[in-house]
Amino acid sequence: MSEKRSKSLTLTVALYSALVIAVGMAIYAVLQYFLIPERTVLSLVLQHGWHVLALGTLIYVTLHGVLHKKVVRPIRDIYLRLYAISKGDLSPISVDSNITEIQEIVEGVNSLLSEIKRSTPVLSSDLCKVAEDLRSLARESGISEETTKEKLMEIAAKIDETVKALSKEAVNKQES
Fold first, then answer.
1. Cα separation of 53 and 49, whole Å?
2. What predicted TM-score, i.e. pTM, was given to this entire model?
3. Is there a domain that residue 172 lies in?
4. Which residues lie closer than 8 Å to 108 by C-beta, 6 or more apart?
5. Does residue 151 sit within a domain?
6. Any domain includes 58
7. Are the CB atoms for 162 and 130 separated by under 8 Å?
8. Which of 6, 54, 73, 97 has the most CB within a 10 Å radius?
């Protein structure tokens, strides 16, 4: 699998903006060249080259500042919170952004966290019961080999039931 080199969103938008300005200025220069025959190519290049540099710099600085503050920083904050979630911090996330798409991501992550918190006690309770059954089996003395097999089969059946119930619950949530 080949690795693509990633670029900053602000850099990408700024470069495309500068490219569009350069193309626009080139078209305008060609138009001027044909409409005003006394203008030389060099004078048009110099005149429009300065416009491209000035406008490109202005647009780059403006877009970089705005995009960094309004898009890149909130996305980075979401990334850091997702990392914390992967380490077990299930507190809801909040990001200071008025961009609809970013708010939708935050709402989606918070909804996911809510579902995880809601289903965790049920799962924990069931698995705690299974673990207690295993502990009590281990504590019993004088268990014959046949009894051990039967008890282990009962515990395995309980685990299977728990997994089936969780799978069924997940399917029902997806359908609704």
1. 6
2. 0.55
3. no
4. none
5. no
6. yes
7. yes
8. 97
